[in-house]
């Protein structure tokens, strides 16, 4: 892009009246407040959503009197509850504000998670999973949308990945936590999984108070829910934080408290967003299925039930540095499509390993397949979300797109819950073959999206070079993603 175009863009935007040092300090303070709180919320959500995978190694199915196929239906009910209210929940957040809405959600799904301890039959199991889905609905896209309002787009990839660190760390540490808690079987005459649900749910409720006291709502209302008169940022810090975001994306300056029908039309007629939706659908179905049954799969190798929970955490801990490495490449080199394609490829290779290793009677080799799949199975999703967010025209479309792609992740949970079935265990040859086919299809879509992105950028760059004075706000939003403002 030539200098004339860059000058035209900068002249159309607000000028910078702060020093780089002031910006670094304000951003550091923002990071220390926003990121740990949102990450904690995602950590709690993953504990409450995923602890069922650990419970089934502690005779949960036998105690609640459900078969594996009935258990899969319960997992589908969780995802269905999320899907049904994903977009309405995000609309409520957009209107009420993330501080209040996310705080409320944490209390709600913490309470539901705690009361899962008292289920003793199939009907109660289905009901609690469905209600848990309803209360969790919208939390992830709400957190992502909150990040997009406080940070520039070039800063988004690492923050999204850090937000998903809560999910990934929750997946990994939950296995180790479960290893300890499940030893409480017999305490108070209760099974170990009773204490698993009770203690993790109670932790979520306590975390809700942290949200209520410390999470600021927005630039226009920079106060927490429980302390509405306490100022978290100084006026100068707010000025810097707000205007640096507007400098990056002028479309974020629109003052709206609702999402209009025009935004729905722009979002749902954008074929690129639908590609991201189907990429999510393809990546997350196999991943969700594998995450649920990985402790049980390891148990089938001949390890003890409780030991399997600890072993199931190894690959999930390994994914943490790998995730940050991919995020750094995506952000530093602006390699959005390439990192998604590489991540999906490595994920698919994991299922190829698992399918092939079913013919090998060496549990160390088979365990390697599990570790590989866990290491590369999760982080493609947040990378895809970051890539998608750069496609959005404005904050309204971005809010809907994030709800749409997270809804895709939960629709993936609906079909993914039926991949590993009772008549296919313990080797799950059919299940692994299905996962390979699904990821191959998703990988093809990611490649198509990447090629389309190259063509679009080249076309837009040529257009603005020829007619720089014709730039509108959408062009500015697009082109500003190609410039690093210092």
Automatic annotation (TrEMBL):
Keywords: Membrane, Transmembrane, Transmembrane helix, Transport. It comes from Lasiosphaeria ovina. PANTHER family: MAJOR FACILITATOR SUPERFAMILY (MFS) PROFILE DOMAIN-CONTAINING PROTEIN, PERMEASE-RELATED. It is found in: Membrane. The keyword Amino-acid biosynthesis does not apply. The keyword Transport applies. Residues 34-459 form the Major facilitator superfamily (MFS) profile domain. This is Alternative sulfate transporter.
């Amino acid at each position: 892009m030539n200098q004339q175009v860059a000058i035209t863009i900068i002249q159309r935007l607000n000028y910078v009246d702060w020093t780089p040092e002031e910006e670094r300090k304000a951003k550091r303070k923002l990071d220390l407040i926003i990121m740990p709180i949102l990450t904690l919320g995602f950590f709690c959500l993953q504990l409450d959503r995923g602890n069922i995978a650990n419970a089934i190694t502690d005779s949960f199915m036998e105690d609640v009197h459900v078969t594996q196929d009935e258990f899969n239906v319960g997992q589908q009910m969780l995802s269905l509850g999320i899907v049904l209210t994903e977009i309405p929940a995000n609309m409520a957040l957009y209107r009420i504000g993330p501080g209040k809405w996310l705080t409320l959600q944490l209390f709600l799904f913490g309470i539901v998670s705690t009361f899962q301890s008292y289920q003793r039959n199939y009907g109660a199991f289905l009901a609690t999973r469905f209600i848990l889905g309803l209360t969790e609905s919208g939390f992830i896209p709400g957190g992502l949308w909150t990040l997009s309002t406080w940070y520039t787009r070039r800063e988004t990839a690492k923050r999204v990945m850090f937000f998903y660190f809560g999910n990934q760390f929750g997946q990994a540490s939950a296995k180790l936590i479960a290893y300890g808690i499940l030893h409480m079987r017999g305490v108070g005459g209760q099974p170990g999984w009773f204490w698993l649900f009770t203690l993790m749910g109670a932790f979520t409720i306590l975390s809700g108070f942290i949200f209520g006291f410390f999470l600021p709502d927005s630039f226009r209302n920079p106060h927490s829910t429980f302390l509405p008169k306490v100022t978290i940022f100084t006026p100068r810090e707010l000025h810097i934080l707000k205007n640096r975001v507007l400098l990056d994306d002028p479309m974020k300056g629109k003052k709206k408290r609702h999402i209009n029908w025009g935004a729905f039309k722009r979002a749902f007629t954008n074929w690129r967003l639908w590609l991201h939706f189907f990429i999510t659908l393809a990546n997350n179905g196999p991943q969700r299925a594998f995450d649920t049954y990985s402790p049980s799969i390891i148990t089938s190798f001949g390890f003890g039930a409780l030991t399997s929970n600890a072993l199931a955490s190894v690959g999930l801990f390994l994914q943490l540095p790998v995730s940050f490495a991919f995020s750094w490449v995506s952000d530093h080199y602006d390699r959005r499509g390439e990192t998604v394609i590489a991540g999906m490829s490595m994920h698919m290779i994991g299922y190829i390993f698992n399918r092939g290793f079913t013919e090998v009677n060496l549990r160390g080799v088979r365990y390697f397949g599990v570790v590989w799949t866990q290491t590369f199975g999760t982080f493609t999703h947040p990378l895809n979300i970051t890539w998608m967010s750069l496609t959005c025209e404005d904050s309204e479309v971005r809010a809907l797109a994030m709800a749409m792609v997270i809804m895709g992740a939960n629709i993936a949970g609906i079909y993914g819950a039926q991949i590993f079935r009772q008549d296919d265990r313990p080797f799950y040859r059919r299940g692994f073959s299905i996962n390979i086919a699904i990821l191959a299809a998703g990988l093809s879509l990611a490649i198509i999206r990447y090629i389309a992105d190259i063509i679009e950028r080249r076309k837009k760059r040529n257009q603005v070079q020829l007619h720089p004075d014709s730039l509108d706000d959408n062009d500015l939003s697009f082109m500003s993603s190609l410039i690093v403002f210092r």
